[in-house]
Predict the 3D structure of the following.
Amino acid sequence: MEERLGIMGTSLRRYREARIAERENRASEADMHSINEYEAAIKKQDMASDFIKAGRTAYMFFDGNESFRWSFVSPPALYRPGRRTGTYEISVDEMVLEGQQQEGSSVFEGRLTGISVADMAIAIADEVEGRKLVWKHWSAWGDMSEDVPAPAYLTLDAVEGGKK
């Protein structure tokens, strides 16, 4: 993560490790300081907006350019490990929300949509093979009914059940 995100990745990793230590009742004073420092920074300025701006800026380099074949995929808000269903829906140029928009208001009822990493991989592979979304900004979303917290980082041993 640090290689891809630099100092932001280092902060996220430190925060994650401190939260795990806290959950396991082994948090040190340094861990608690890391948690408090990170959460104070989030309250001051949500760092997720930096990712959103970076993604939007990257898309702007492609939008309207038809000098080569491209397809720009953005994961939905709830993109995380989960059950592979093999099914998904596609949205183009829209963030899909479950629920209804209230008339005359920008307030949404319902919740954000999401997709498992496995189903997103299937959606991307299908697009690579079918090329149905050329020159489009798209996303995929699917069944998150079994959405439960899962480890963000796994080792090969954990995935294979510890078998070697």
Summary: Residues 67-148 form a domain with the Rossmann fold fold (CATH 3.40.50.720). Confidence is low (pLDDT under 50) at residues 104-109. Helices lie at 2-5, 7-23, 29-44, 48-62, 117-130, 156-159. The longest strand covers residues 137-141.
